[in-house]
Predict the structure.
Amino acid sequence: MQKHLLGLEGVPREEIELILKTAFSFKEILSRPIPKVPTLRGKTIVNLFFEPSTRTRISFELAEKRLSADTVNFSASGSSVQKGETLRDTIRNIEAMKMDMVVIRHSAAGAPHFLTRCIDAAVINAGDGRHEHPTQALLDMMTLQERVGKLEGLKVAIVGDILHSRVARSNIYGLQTMGAEVAICGPKTLIPVEADQWGVEIFYNIDDAIRWADALNVLRIQLERQRTGLFPSLREYAAHFGVTRARLEAAQKDLIIMHPGPINRGIEIENDLADSEFSVILNQVTNGVAVRMAVLYLKSGVTETLE
């Protein structure tokens, strides 16, 4: 078991399987009347969020509380970062406070890797730039495994803004390691030039992707980047790449619909479909807490048996 979780690229299948198995155990604990265990009592975890976040930050905070850890929350706004303090100095000051683990989200790809050279604490990547978002991919894989029973041989198409997506990259690495087949789909302007080296199918037509896939992981169109003119308009994108019930019915397939959130309803996915029988989006949210509990537990160095 590696000390840190910086991404899923190169992570052995055995480690991913252990994380998922542990996550399922924690999900059972979360269903209890008192969904809390003393596993990380006495451990201190700092959540370093240099980018805005709702789902990921709250999910990690809840996971830490469910494990009885002491939690310190840091956000760049209102901190000494705004006064010019460097990431290295911020981290070294935090380490001087004797933290055991650090969960970091940062706009710069590689920031979690940099942290490992500055501190002794275990580092968990909660999303770094366009690089990776490993716990999101793990919860996606847990949700698929829960729904289908296996990942081996499953066909998963990742649809939308692949270019800017750290979720897509982590999913590709993790799913391929677990024996799934992966495809990506989107406008050519949102498919990275290096995508043909990823060992994935590439579709530029959403209907072709739907016919191919067992599951669709629909990514958010990053509205803040729309000003760069990567496609004509949101209306145009929805018409050509929006996932709708009509498209699923035309393909005569019962697909699994996933989305990492937040959803731009009516753009990348039809409003009704996001809440339909095909959707496992809320399951992803629930599984996110269990996966993050599993990662924190396994990376903490604690050997206590789960009860």
